[in-house]
UniProtKB/TrEMBL annotation:
The chain crosses the membrane at residues 12-33, 74-98, 105-129, 141-161, 192-213, 249-273. InterPro entries: BP-dependent_transpt_permease (IPR050366), MetI-like (IPR000515), MetI-like_sf (IPR035906). The lineage of its organism: Bacteria, Bacillati, Actinomycetota, Actinomycetes, Kineosporiales. This is Peptide/nickel transport system permease protein. It is found in: Cell membrane. GO terms for molecular function: dipeptide transmembrane transporter activity. It is a multi-pass membrane protein. Residues 70-270 form the ABC transmembrane type-1 domain.
Amino acid sequence: MRELMPRWDGKLAIGVATVALITVFALVVPLLAQDPRSSANPALLPPGPGHWLGTTKLGNDVLAQLAVGTRGSLFVGVLGGLVSLVLALFFGILAGYIGGVVDEVLMLLTNINLVIPGLPLVMVIAAYVQNAPGLGSLARSSLMVALVLGVTGWAGSAVVLRAQARSLRTREYVAAARVAGEGTLRIICVEILPNLVPLIAAQLIYGVIFTVLGEAGLSYLGLGPTGSITLGTMLNDAQTGQAVGTGAWWWFVPPGTIIAALGAGLSLVNFALDEVVDPRLRQAPQAVRRQRRSRAAITREEASA
């Protein structure tokens, strides 16, 4: 179990602390702040007592909107990451383990998804879904944005999982399970997936990062959710409200900072998980330190000579 756990170092500690602080902020502060849609405050107040991050052009409290928007972006990110992971597991694991015609068909669909430019595809799907009849309020909701981003962001993870599944299907314990008459589904769930837990966790984190950034991009372009507040919709409101031109930096800097901090924190955690997937990454710093000690020893010997 010790070998399967990430090595606790500086980057993992910083990543976990950053994500934890942002999560606590998103869960606790909305309970204490005022209504983020309230326009009873003076417009474009700079940060100060009473409004620690100022107000928007409509008089909304930026701190309240930031807390609720962070919670909305986390919801979109986690849901979109889970949808992306489920599709990646289906296409990647089945293709890698079964092989043959199934592998060719599933990887053909995966490769088609890979070669299509991601952002234009998401924009087209989001615009079409939002104008589709019969969806009602669901068309411009955070749930629909998360589903769209999840459905379009699974291909890269599927390729990685397929490669690992192809490697695991040749192992002795998998062959023994097939000889014992175990079914395909049981072998995948019992023999394959437990050995891919670190890689699956890394792909989930990657999916969350992709979805959070994707939602921010869609919302900034005006294709995000309209019935809820996210970090992306805050940036869109700041852009349409000419926050840059009026010098209201407190309107757009905080949501951009939260997006950057969340992406950096999740990336640091992902780097630690990469060391579990590839032990050579864990051994690399030790090798560098050994080389430095060797060079220092040689330098001291030459100096004494």
